[in-house]
């Protein structure tokens, strides 16, 4: 029970494939009480039964571009819970027509919308959540390697993840003296609604699994275990970090498994 009695706001649950759902379930198993809003009315029928299965509260609409809905969510949490110990930010959106082809073709409108929903929302949610973290707290967001290196088709979402990663460091610096830690989990690719919006995602999954040192792709259990660690007191001196939970992919150069294969079989057989 690493999170016994902790009150944690989990954003970004869309269905039972969502990384946020894996983390909500695991946090609940570790003793946390969960708040679980959803982004839009169409998602309520999927999110409400999941929330009920773990006794989650504050199952209300909260689009991060809607200040009234944000005000209402945080007012309700303050009135009923009084404070927060943790928050998961697991939110990203972009026009999927621009998550394929050239980054150079990104439109101004989609650039602004993608950065607003996928990066600025962490700043806004952190400002609101930190006001309720009077006993310190832990804020965790989900990012991807495409913010550090150019990954085909990830395009403007990669730029948003760079902004998100940088925001983690600035927010950690702002809030550290209040005992509030801010970290990101840089997760390997996994099939979700958001993931499937990236062009060629199935091919990415295949190539990724062939090239990680652990010779497999990351799972929901892998990411939820890391999140429990970051929400718990086990990580009490960890802040401003981009913690890679990607089976080691980001630590490698020159496709190591493929290279081993070529060296074993010889160049002529390739
Ligand atoms: P998902 O589709 O289940 O989750 C994305 C969530 O963002 C959804 O719940 C959606 O409702 C929410 N969202 C979108 N626009 C919103 C808005 N305006 N207001 C509030 N919420 C909004 O997919 P996921 O893969 O679990 O994504 C969660 C996070 O993990 C995202 O930040 C994503 O970039 C990141 N991530 C995903 C992968 C992957 O391969 N799937 C890898 C690394 C990081």
Summarize the structure.
This protein has helices at 19-29, 44-53, 67-80, 108-130, 155-175, 193-196, 201-211, 220-231, 256-265; strands at 7-10, 33-35, 86-89, 137-143, 180-187, 242-245.
The geometry reads as globular
- Write out the strand line-up for the largest beta sheet, numbering strands in chain order: 2-1-3-4-5-6
Share of residues in helices: 40-55%
What would the average pLDDT be, to the nearest integer?
Answer: 96
Radius of gyration: 19 Å
Structural class: alpha/beta
User: Which consecutive residue ranges, at least 5 long each, have pLDDT under 50?
Assistant: none
Helix/strand order, N-terminal first: EHEHHEHEHEHHHEH
What are the SSEs and their pairings?
Layout: E1 7-10, H1 19-29, E2 33-35, H2 44-53, H3 67-80, E3 86-89, H4 108-130, E4 137-143, H5 155-175, E5 180-187, H6 193-196, H7 201-211, H8 220-231, E6 242-245, H9 256-265
Parallel strand pairs: 1-2, 1-3, 3-4, 4-5, 5-6
Helix pairs in contact: 1-8, 4-5
Bound molecules: nicotinamide-adenine-dinucleotide.
The site of nicotinamide-adenine-dinucleotide has 26 residues, from helix 1, strand 4 and helix 6.
